[in-house]
Design a protein that fits this description.
- The chain has 311 residues and is an alpha/beta fold.
- Helix content is 39%, strand content 26%.
- The chain is built from ten helices and 14 strands.
- α1 packs across α2, α1 crosses α3 and α2 packs across α3.
- The termini are far apart.
């Protein structure tokens, strides 16, 4: 029996909640994972998992075995990876998680530039506007604007993400002048689902002071594509991160509205599970990606923002 493979399958089933999910992660068939679990149960002489219609959960024996294993397997993986890295090999799968606004416009490009240096690396890039659950063990690095609350998570601040009000030139030319925040009430407002403060108010800042304007959006979305299409089509004034619309501003497809005001900024964080060692590919990408992201217009290393928002 391959004890290491059986233990790895056991841990993955518990963390992912099912045999099928563990099989996908391990690149095996579901029957192969089932066989590994049965071999492990035969080896320890006790059932370790209870299987049901809602997934798999540990028996008392399985729970105690998982507790005693701790981070042993991830530590072994990291140690082997470190040994390979010391031999000059950077490769393997790099599993990234990020909000769509960062991933679609910038992070995928950073990852591809990293691959041009290390062609043996494969990238899994998941884009979601909800915080990653790093405790599941299927993500190496997560980018986002929410402070980590769970234990065992290492988090560092990359910089400050700035937000603007923008619109198509055709919209600005066709409608009444927009020269004060109060004038926004007379216009169609398009917002991302997290750009507003509680109570559907828009937090605006100018020269260190902040006001909150009550607004009634005509379109609220969590889709980067929908937001940009609506704005470029001249359907209203929108809230957007500078990193998302910087090219549109440079090309003149969009212009800033109320340029003396900005929407409240947010901190951008990088998070990963705490471990004694990081795999060489993860460590190498950390060293490459953080300086690259800080070069993006709209991400500033200095300044203070809030946490808890995404796109």
């Amino acid at each position: 029996m391959d004890l290491a493979a059986s233990l790895r399958a056991f841990v993955d089933v518990l963390e992912l909640g099912s045999m099928s999910a563990a099989a996908r992660k391990l690149g095996l068939s579901q029957p192969a994972v089932t066989k590994l679990i049965r071999n492990l149960e035969a080896h320890v002489g006790a059932p370790l998992l209870e299987r049901g219609p809602t997934g798999a959960r540990p028996t008392d024996h399985g729970r105690r075995l998982r507790e005693r294993l701790g981070d042993t397997l991830s530590t072994i993986d990291a140690a082997i990876g470190a040994a390979k890295g010391e031999a000059g090999s950077i490769g393997g799968t790099l599993r990234l998680h990020a909000p769509a606004c960062l991933g679609e416009r910038h992070l995928h490009d950073v990852a591809q530039r990293f691959r041009s240096i290390h062609p043996d690396v494969a990238v899994d890039l998941t884009l979601e506007n909800t915080p990653a659950d790093l405790r599941r063990g299927d993500i190496d690095l997560a980018f986002g604007m929410t402070r980590a609350k769970a234990q065992g998570i290492v988090q560092s601040r990359i910089g400050l993400v700035r937000r603007y009000l923008v619109a198509a030139p055709s919209y600005v030319e066709a409608y009444a002048p927009i020269d004060t925040p109060a004038a926004l009430a007379a216009h169609d407002l398009i917002v991302t689902d997290v750009s507003l403060a509680p109570g559907d108010t828009l937090p605006l800042q100018q020269d260190g002071k902040e006001i909150e304007m009550a607004v009634n959006p005509v379109l609220r979305t969590n889709s980067v594509g929908v937001l940009l299409e609506a704005l470029r089509s001249g359907r209203g004034i929108g809230t957007a991160q500078r990193l998302l619309v910087d090219r549109d501003l440079l090309d003149g497809r969009l212009v800033r509205v109320l340029p003396d005001w900005e929407i409240r900024s947010s901190n951008l964080y990088l998070s990963y599970p705490a471990a004694r060692w990081l795999r060489p590919v993860v460590r190498a990408f950390l060293d490459f990606a953080v300086p690259a992201l800080r070069q993006i217009p709209g991400i500033e290393r200095h300044g203070v923002g809030i946490g808890g928002t995404t796109c």
